[in-house]
Structure formats: structure tokens, C-alpha cells
Design a protein that fits this description.
Peptide Deformylase; alpha+beta; binds zinc ion; two-stranded antiparallel ribbon
Length: about 170
């Protein structure tokens, strides 16, 4: 089921999410809804708090569903190791229509669990590293806006306020 995406500046996006301990059917249903919602947007990543659910679950597909074999569901993900740096334009489904250049590691190794609770690790570079870091940040209540210089952040926040006032958000 496609669910509405929570938009900035909703308080749900600023909360630290709770670790998943029950690998039950509700979790599988949430993951399914997150994938469906991400693909319909379309987007390449989505975190549970973006659907207003305060748990540590993210979904990622760097092809936005255009190719098979790239779909990832990560429960309780953690960046175990990272290296390098990249700075590219980044967006967020909770901050629609706006992008900014954000600095991220160029490579990450992420530890996570699958929907059955089995532990696994994945490595990613470039876009995959960026998306993983972006989505894992969501679980800490961190948005990419928080990664920008104060000047750039204030500029974007003012732009968003204007859009909200105009009823275009
Ligand atoms: Zn986001």
C-alpha cells in the first residue's frame, strides 16, 4: 500500500528511531509499503520515519526500480566503516523539489539485518554509499539540510517557508 510521505518540517523527521526487535508480519508489511511508496514517488531510498513510523528500517534501490537486483531492505542498519569523500547534489522525498550539494563518504560498509533478523553486510560506493548514509541519517533524525553550511541551510529553509506560505508545499 502506498502511504503518504511525511514532509519537512514534521517533528517525526527529527526523532531518533527505535531498534527493531520483533521480526514479525507488521515489519514485513511496513517494508512492503515503504518499497511501494518509494517506487511510486519515484525515489531511490526511503526511511521508516518518512512514513511517520519511528523504527530503524530503510529501503534502497539506486535504479528506482528500473533494473532487477538492486532492491535493498535494511533493518537496524549501521555504518560500520567508511572512507573517502564525495560531494554531489542530493534530494529527499520529504523535501520535494529541492536539492543541494552534500558531502558524504565515497565508500561505506553497512551492517544490518534482513526481515527475518539475519545479520548481513553490504558495501557500496558512489551513489549507493550516498543513499545509505542519507537513509541511515534519517533514523537519527538527521536531514541533509543539517549537513549544509548555516548560510545555505537558512537559504533553503526560507525558500521552503515561502512555499508553505504560498500553499505549494
Ligand atoms: Zn531523505
Amino acid at each position: 500500500m502506498i502511504r503518504p510521505i511525511v514532509k519537512y518540517p514534521a517533528p517525526e523527521l527529527e526523532e531518533i528511531c527505535i531498534p527493531v526487535s520483533d521480526f514479525n508480519s507488521d515489519l514485513k508489511e511496513l517494508a512492503g509499503d515503504m518499497l511501494e511508496t518509494m517506487y511510486s514517488a519515484p525515489g531511490i531510498g526511503l526511511a521508516a520515519p518518512q512514513l511517520g513510523v519511528n523504527v530503524r528500517l530503510i529501503v534502497v534501490d539506486v535504479t528506482a526500480g528500473q533494473e532487477d537486483g538492486y532492491q535493498l531492505v535494511l533493518v537496524n542498519p549501521e555504518v560500520a566503516e567508511h572512507s573517502g569523500r564525495q560531494k554531489e547534489e542530493e534530494g529527499c522525498l520529504s523535501i520535494p523539489g529541492i536539492t543541494a550539494a552534500v558531502e558524504r563518504p565515497d565508500w561505506v560498509r553497512v551492517k544490518a539485518q534482513d526481515l527475518e533478523g539475519n545479520e548481513f553486510e553490504i558495501e557500496g560506493n558512489e551513489l549507493l554509499a550516498r543513499v545509505l548514509c542519507h537513509e541511515i541519517d534519517h533514523l537519527e533524525g538527521i536531514l541533509y539540510l543539517d549537513k549544509l553550511s548555516p548560510l545555505r541551510r537558512d537559504l533553503l529553509k526560507r525558500k521552503i517557508k515561502k512555499l508553505i506560505r504560498a500553499g505549494e508545499w
